[in-house]
Amino acid sequence: MKWLNVPAEEAARRLLGCELVSTIDGQEVRVRIVETEAYDQLDPASHAFSGRSARNNAMFESAGHLYVYLSYGLNFCCNIVCGPDGFGSGVLIRAVEPLSGLSVIESRRGQKGVTVTNGPGKVCQALGISLNMSGHDLSHKPVQLIQKPALAAEQIVAGKRIGISKNAHALRRFYEKNNSYISKK
DNA sequence: TGGACGATTGACT
DNA sequence: GTCAATCGTCCAA
User: Which CATH superfamily is domain A2-176 in?
Assistant: First the structure.
């Protein structure tokens, strides 16, 4: 995906407003990305910082692939790989807004309301994404990324990333202004 | 080979 | 607001 072959911060901005369509288990779920965080191999907070390994291999694929990892031993988090092939960089999807398939999402999450998709682990659960999807090409089923027109600059807010200790001051988190599905804290 | 530590969540006070 | 759950990965010895 050529439009994602850019630095992580730029990709994180471009992904806001784009859509993800998942057709796992015969159930279609469509969501809109509203919150992202940028990571790359030059960033101490990134999994790619220590070099390529079996775990983070997908982050070094070409732009438009999926990188999934296990967080705290119990949650999956998904990233959209960006930048050139061989350079470890990606964008964490922190929160999305449901567009269709809401009943499927509520069923998978066991909750209703804005808390169904307002966190990275929740996004994976809502879309039905698990570890075996890491390295998947997002231009094909069962999970596809659909590009949408970029949000207006004044609709994008930049802030500090959540839940990290290294390089915590960097403003590499981006979210849509006034969207109710943004994660808390 | 062992131990500390997460790009988190949900339950409970 | 505080805290336990839970396990793959990484680094020290």
Answer: Methylpurine-DNA glycosylase (MPG) (3.10.300.10)
